[in-house]
Design brief:
Number of domains: 2
Shape: globular
Helix content: 25-40%
Order of helices and strands: HHHEEEEEEEHHH
Radius of gyration: 20 Å
Number of strands: 7
Oligomer: single chain
Distance between the termini: 40 Å
Strand content: 25-35%
Largest sheet: 7 strands, mixed
Structural class: alpha+beta
């Protein structure tokens, strides 16, 4: 995997090509060198969590950002919304975040199970970037909602037909 933060130390400004399916993404590379992705993400903080690591996916079509709980922070019970001790972790989940420079962005996180004494139940923790079992983050849903409000139905139809091409016209 290619580390995003390492780009500024390893590559020159002109004609930088990343191994992304043969596509030259020198503009995106220059942006990564100018500012590390984690630095940008730190503007969008989630209380009790830390961005640990950012990397390109194995296909180089998306960016994966590993999130971990901040040391000493307690998990929040998803039932009563109060801090509770955690005792186990679930498998890592992918949450779709706002795209950067044409790359899909995913937050990777292993949800903690909490043993809530108030609810007297074991529940999955509540995380601030997503509601319930959704895979889209709140920030991404807000981003999409604002774009939907700006575009008319006619413009939306044109955009869809442009990208789907002949398949939409035949359907």
């Amino acid at each position: 995997m290619l580390e995003l933060g390492v780009l500024q130390k390893q590559h020159h400004v002109a004609n930088v090509a990343l191994p992304m399916g043969g596509v030259n993404r020198s503009f995106a590379t220059a942006r990564f060198r100018a500012m590390e992705l984690i630095t940008i993400l730190n503007r969008c903080r989630f209380r009790g969590f830390v961005y640990q690591h950012a990397r390109f996916s194995s296909t180089h079509k998306s960016i994966e950002i590993t999130v971990r709980p901040r040391k000493g922070s307690k998990a929040i019970c998803s039932r009563c919304h109060q801090p509770a001790p955690g005792y186990d972790r679930l498998a890592q989940r992918r949450f779709e975040f706002i795209p950067f420079w044409g790359f899909l962005v995913f937050l990777l996180y292993s949800m903690r199970l909490v043993d809530c004494r108030r609810c007297q139940a074991v529940a999955v923790e509540e995380v601030p970037w997503v509601d319930g079992k959704r895979t889209l983050t709140k920030a991404y849903m807000l981003f999409l909602a604002r774009w939907a409000r700006r575009l008319s139905w006619k413009e939306t139809g044109r955009s869809v037909s442009h990208f789907l091409g002949k398949g939409l016209r035949r359907g």
